Amino acid sequence: MVFTGNATAALNIALQGVLRPGDHVVGTVLEHNSVLRPLQHLRQQRGITFHLAPCDEQGYVAPEAIAQRINERTRLVVMTHASNVLGTVQDVAAVGEICRQRGLLLLVDAAQTAGVIPVDMAAIGAHLLAFTGHKGLMGPTGTGGLLVAPEVDVQPSFWGGTGVRSAQRTQPEEYPYRLEAGTLGALPLAGLRAGLRWVREQPVEETEARLARHFLAGLRELPHVRVLSLEPGRTDWDARRRVPVFSLLIAGMAPDKAGMFLDAEWDIAVRTGLQCAPLAHRAMGTGQGGGVRVSFGPLNTTAEIDTLLKALTSFST
Questions:
Q1: C-alpha pair distances (Å), 258 with each of 233, 285, 291
Q2: What ranges in the chain are assigned the alpha helix state H?
Q3: Phi and psi for 137 in degrees, rounded to 5?
Q4: Structural domains in the chain?
Q5: Coil, strand or helix: which one is 143?
Q6: Percentage of the chain modeled with pLDDT above 90
Q7: Does the predicted TM-score (pTM) go above 0.90?
Q8: pLDDT in tens, 107-134
């Protein structure tokens, strides 16, 4: 367990720490820029190559699409556990089995799932797992981490003080000191610990599923609002297949203008645009303007969902 400031830092540490010149990586079009940009940098600076598996219209990547892109130089598969644009939970366990059979490393981005649904690193076959503290784990911003399987060798990409072996001129080899250089934020980590304790005592999965069903039921009355990757009128919800993240398209209203209206007139915070996942939007046909992303957490209420639905209703008038 290595603490970082966020999932982006954890993903960078993992990618830079395991990839060597000439290595090949398989990812997906659903990846966040915290994966896409490091891969692009490593292609330019270290000569790696990578291919990205597509998703279907429902926002899922077939494990077979991952397998088809593996070649003799592949060292790593990296994929998001759940899309930060669509909320679709990917079959990382099936991909983990493919990696086990091929002798490849699997890096999982669990930014959207840690604390929301059960994440068992061993069960899904992940060798590296990055998470952030400020989302499902209910911690403060500036917290995150990287879980590293015992057999994985991650080389440090930055070096410095560790508080131990100060006379040693090189970075200590053992974890977490190998990858934790400098003073960690004690107060943010204390907040993360408190958030984790709270999450463990709450029915998070059930609460968020109830809110998602309530939202989808209300959307049936709003034909001018479309949810990316979801069939119109669908109200069923499988918490193991989706987390409550929805990207909306509102007829006749640009996403950025819709977001400003929801903020100014209804005091509703949403995220507009491409959500740092441009290829996911391109796959959904929204690569230019993106969408209006809403998401629910365990502290939201059905009354707040009703307010959101009322606000979305106002766009039709």
A1: 22, 19, 9
A2: 7-18, 33-46, 63-68, 92-102, 121-124, 186-200, 204-219, 255-266, 278-284, 302-313
A3: -85, -5
A4: 2-198 (3.40.640.10), 204-316 (3.90.1150.10)
A5: coil
A6: 95
A7: yes
A8: 999 999 999 999 999 999 999 999 999 9
